Amino acid sequence: MQSKAAVLWGPHTPWSVEETELDAPRFGEVRVKLAASGLCHSDDHFVKGDIPCGYPIIGGHEGAGVVEEVGPGVKRIKEGDAVVLAFMPACGHCRWCASGKSMLCDYGAIIMDGLPISDQQPRVHARGEGLRQVSMLGTFAPYVVVNEDSCVKVDDDTPLEYAALVGCGVTTGYGAAVKQAKVEPGDTVVVVGTGGVGSSAVQGARIAGAEVIVAVDPFEYRREQAKVVGATHAVASMAEATPLVTELTRGVMADKTILTASLMTGDMLMPLMLLTRKGGRACLTSTANPNITNADVVLADVIFSQKEIVGNVYGGCNPHADIPRILSLYRRGLLKLDELVSKTYALEQVNEGYDDLLNGRIMRGLISYS
């Protein structure tokens, strides 16, 4: 079928909206008509070359919509089902899925390749070339053909435009606080970087019962929005956070720190760990260039203060179990999704959306296909 998509033809080039030809779903695949796609900062890393991938590639890995066509061999999904697309598919039978760690599914080794699970042959074509799809999704397109292992069935009355955000950023941030940092009632928490992921970490900390939540972001708009979703204090840098947290905790420092800056560099670790109390835990949620092999840290501080450093993929969440739970929090008014969306764009405005995102004018943008 004929469609369109925002395509990245190579690094350091803008997104180009192209007319595309979309193949029918093959074995184990479905075609989904999307309601919306989130504008996640991670897709800009493909533009900058921070994250290696193949080109040309359709951007976008946050989406939700309705299944329009089902290919042969599909068992869990039927036409008409409402689904959220998970940026990390779950095979269900590798060691990690079988032990309840589907966010570490072996499919993770191939998602950045951007080609279908079953045969690594592109399903979308433009200018006579096959196109890859970010996370094997490519949600910068109103229609996608994806494997059923990437689809999480949700209630039919789910507000799908906002549910798109749960496919990556919201789940990653919420889980960073609740599952990886393990925020507890009464904790003091510092969240560094309050875009879509960081603001969701703020919410996770609030829902988990944190008493003090310090949001750190260089952009004033995001600092103010972080307060809307649960931050009790907001400052522009970790340097500013240090005397504030010292005062608030009488020198104990934060129980949990969460780094959700879009791209982590080696010089960020030391100030984060110095904000973390003895016996505290720091959760690293940012992406990082794989070529970076060194980070600054006071080893004696980490060792003899018995501090913990933990990584984070998908918030430590199992998408098929946790995405419905997170949407339930939204329905009950505990998790704010509407407030995360600062502006809605047409697909043709994708470059404008990223300009707004990178310059701190929005917390999260949404491409609407309605």
UniProtKB/TrEMBL annotation:
EC number: 1.1.99.36
InterPro entries: ADH-like_C (IPR013149), ADH-like_N (IPR013154), ADH_Zn_actinomycetes (IPR023921), ADH_Zn_CS (IPR002328), ER (IPR020843), GroES-like_sf (IPR011032), NAD(P)-bd_dom_sf (IPR036291)
GO BP: any one term: formaldehyde catabolic process
Listed CDD domains: Zn_ADH_class_III
Keyword Nuclease: no
Alphabetical keyword list: Metal-binding, NAD, Oxidoreductase, Zinc
Limits of the Enoyl reductase (ER) domain: 10-367
Highest taxon listed in the record's lineage: Bacteria
EC class name: oxidoreductase
Gene3D superfamilies tied to this protein: Medium-chain alcohol dehydrogenases, catalytic domain, NAD(P)-binding Rossmann-like Domain
Keyword Ubl conjugation appears in the UniProt entry: no
Gene Ontology molecular function, alphabetical: S-(hydroxymethyl)glutathione dehydrogenase [NAD(P)+] activity; zinc ion binding
Homology family: Belongs to the zinc-containing alcohol dehydrogenase family.
Protein name: NDMA-dependent alcohol dehydrogenase
Organism listed in the record: Amycolatopsis alkalitolerans
